[in-house]
């Protein structure tokens, strides 16, 4: 759980967007997530570029390439790849930064995956960048810049705190499992690359992320094999949810943690009522626990 200065920073970011005119908690969370995603994409490539430079090898599979990026063909929109990177555009004047993100950066992140039908591309397709003014954007960007996003433990706490703002019992139908409980369950299960992992009510993909981190931390050598890495990135993890916003957030989380194409999709888990024996997702007896699997 976050406290003190970090909590104040997160609250300030939230309040800035809220007072800027976006009053839906889930929309506020989405907009913060999009900006965090933009920064983490750039941070991840900066680290990869530094490692490649130390080893004296070229960096492959870059998100931000060299030269000009064509955002769309009709109408034709293009910009330099460097303008898509957080470490460049966060220094722009507020008005220029807002226009750059709206016109170039946000449309670009929606197409990541080179046109493939991935979980990320499916659930980002209809998203909209809603930060209303340059002043609001500049304050939020400064707030995100002030946080240490390279510390996974801290970012996990930050995200848990943000989710807590929309996940008070019953609000928006969202409930979250505390991160220390998630980690305990994963450590008890001790997942390996011989397993397949499913969360049928994934939310922001906390269980899947914890399992992915456990596997990557305990089976580093095995993940150096091409077939194992492919399985880890594309086949090992599945997650279902009924909330499009959570599906987007979960897909972004998984992608940022190296799981490029998890099986994340919309799905309803039907159950059979233990009293009337009808298949349902809304039956009152179900909500008091008297139900059995369909």
Walk me through this protein's architecture.
- The protein has 294 residues and is mainly α.
- The protein has two domains: 4-152, Ferritin, CATH 1.20.1260; 178-294, Vaccinia Virus protein VP39 (Rossmann fold), CATH 3.40.50.150.
- 51% of the residues lie in helices and 10% in strands.
- A three-stranded parallel sheet has the order 3-4-5.
- α11 links the parallel β4 and β5.
- The chain is globular.
- The two termini are 37 Å apart.
- Mean pLDDT is 82; it is low at 271-294.
Shape: globular
Give a short account of the largest sheet.
3 strands, parallel
- SSE string: HHEEHHHHHHEHHEHEEEHE
Determine and state the CATH class of the largest domain.
Mainly Alpha
Q: How many structural domains can be distinguished in the coordinates?
A: 2
Structural class, judged by helices and strands?
mainly alpha
Q: What level of helicity do the residues show? A: 40-55%
Uncertain regions spanning at least 5 consecutive residues:
271-294
| Average pLDDT number | 82
Write the CATH fold name of the largest domain.
Answer: Ferritin
Short overview:
The chain is built from twelve helices and eight strands.
Features:
globular; mainly alpha; 2 domains; Rossmann fold; three-stranded parallel sheet; three-stranded antiparallel sheet; disordered C terminus; Ferritin
């Amino acid at each position: 759980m976050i406290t003190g200065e970090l909590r104040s920073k997160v609250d300030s970011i939230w309040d800035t967007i809220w007072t800027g005119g976006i009053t839906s908690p889930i929309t506020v969370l989405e907009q913060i997530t999009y900006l965090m995603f933009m920064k983490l994409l750039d941070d991840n490539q900066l680290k990869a570029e530094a490692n490649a430079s130390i080893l004296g090898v070229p960096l492959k599979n870059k998100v931000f390439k060299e030269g000009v990026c064509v955002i769309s063909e009709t109408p034709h929109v293009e910009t330099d790849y460097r303008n898509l990177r957080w470490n460049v555009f966060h220094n722009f004047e507020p008005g220029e930064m807002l226009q750059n993100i709206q016109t170039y950066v946000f449309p670009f992140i929606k197409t990541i995956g080179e046109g493939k039908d991935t979980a990320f591309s499916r659930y980002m397709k209809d998203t909209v960048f809603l930060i209303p003014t340059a002043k609001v954007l500049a304050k939020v960007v400064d707030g995100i810049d002030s946080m240490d996003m390279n510390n996974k433990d801290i970012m996990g706490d930050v995200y848990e705190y943000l989710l807590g703002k929309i996940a008070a019992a019953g609000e928006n139908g969202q409930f979250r499992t505390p991160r220390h409980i998630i980690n305990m369950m994963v450590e008890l299960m001790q997942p390996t690359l011989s397993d397949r992992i499913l969360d049928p009510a994934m939310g922001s993909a906390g269980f899947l992320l914890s399992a992915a981190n456990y596997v990557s931390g305990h089976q580093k050598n095995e993940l150096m094999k091409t077939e194992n890495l492919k399985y880890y990135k594309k086949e090992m993890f599945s997650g279902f949810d009924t909330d499009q916003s959570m599906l987007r957030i979960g897909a972004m989380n998984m992608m940022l943690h190296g799981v490029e194409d998890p099986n994340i999709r919309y799905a309803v888990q039907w159950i059979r009522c233990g009293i009337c024996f009808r298949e349902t997702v809304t039956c009152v007896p179900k909500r008091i626990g008297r139900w059995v699997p369909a």
